[in-house]
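Contributing: when you submit paired examples, paste them exactly as shown. First protein:
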Amino acid sequence: MNPLPRTGKAWRPRRRPRRLRATHHRYDGVMHMLAALDLATGKLFYRIRARKRSQESLDFLKALRARWPGEKLYLICDNFSPHRHPAVRSWCAVNEIELVFLPTYGSWLNWIEAEFAALRYFALGGTDHRSHTEQNAAIAGYVRWHNGRAQPKVNFATDSPIRTWTDYPAKAA
C-alpha cells in the first residue's frame, strides 16, 4: 500500500472540483497488510507492516493462534512465498494450523479478496493520504466499521456446479 492519490468519487461542489496531486513520491516506502477473515463471525483481523517476509507472516499467525487457542485453524492462502516458507509450515504443523493453498491465478476463490475490494473502495478510493499514518488510520476506521456490522459468512454456493463432482462419460474412439 502506498500513500498515493487514488482516484474515485467524492462529494464536492461542482464549481470547485477536487484536485489530486499529479505525482507522488515514496519517501517513506510502502507498507504491507496481512489480513484474515473469520468466516464464523465475518470479522477482519489485520496487521500493517513495513516488510512482507516469512517472519511477518509467522508473527501474524501467532497472533491468530493466540486469538483462537485450542481450535484447529484452516487458513486459505495464496501462493506467496512467505506463506510457503519452511519455518512457517513447520510452525503451523506443530500448532494445529492447516494452510490451504489456492491454485495459481485462483485468488478470486478466497472470500477475503471481496473484503479487500470493499476496503479499497470505501477506505482508499478518492483519497490523497500524505503519510502512512493517515492511510493506516483510514484503514483502521473502515475495519472498525466493518467489524461492528459483520455477520457470519454462510453462502458458500453449495448448489454450484463447480463444487459438485460429475462423472463425464469416456469419449468413444
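Second protein:
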Amino acid sequence: MEQKSTTINGVYEFKLKMHYDSRGWLSEVFRQEWDVPCPPIQWNTVFSKKNTLRGVHTHLDHYDYLVVPFGKMLLGLKDLRINSPTFEVSNIVTLSPQNLSAWLIPPGVAHGFFFPQDSIHFYGLSGYWNLEMDFACKWNDPDLGLDWPTSNPTLSKRDQQAKTLQQVREQLRQLQPKEY
C-alpha cells in the first residue's frame, strides 16, 4: 500500500491494490500492520442515493478512514486548524473504485461527501462517534471554498439546519481555543 500526502496537512491518500479475476475484484482496505495513524476502532457502511450531500462536518476527537468501493463520491475538505501549515485550504477530490484508495482525515479538517450517483462508502473512526463532538456547517457556505456541482442536494434534517462556518469556528474556539 502506497501512502501519499495531499494538499491538506495530515490528510493522506492510501492507494489500494485491486486483484481482478473472472468473478470481479478484491482489495484489502485496511491492515493493522499498515502505517495508519490512529487506526479505526469503529466501522460504518453507508449507502447514498444520487444527488445526496452528507456534511460538511468536523470533529475534534477522531480520525476518519474512508473508502468508496461502489459508485462515486466527491470529497470536499477544508482545513480549519489555525496552527496547520494548510490552514484555510479547500479541496474537492473524487473517490471511486476505478482508482481505489483510502483517505485519512484528521480532526479539525471539515469534510463533506457529495454523491453524483448511487454509491456505497464505508469509514472507520479512530474513536467512537459522539454527536456532541461533531459539528455541522452549511454545505454551501461560501467561506468553505467548496464548489459543489449541485444547487439542490438531498440533505439530512441536521445538515439542513447546520450553522455557518463562522458559527462552527466559534464553537471550536470555545472548546480548543489554541487550535481554532
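If you have annotations for the second protein, write them as plain sentences, like these:
The radius of gyration is 16 Å.
The mean pLDDT is 94.
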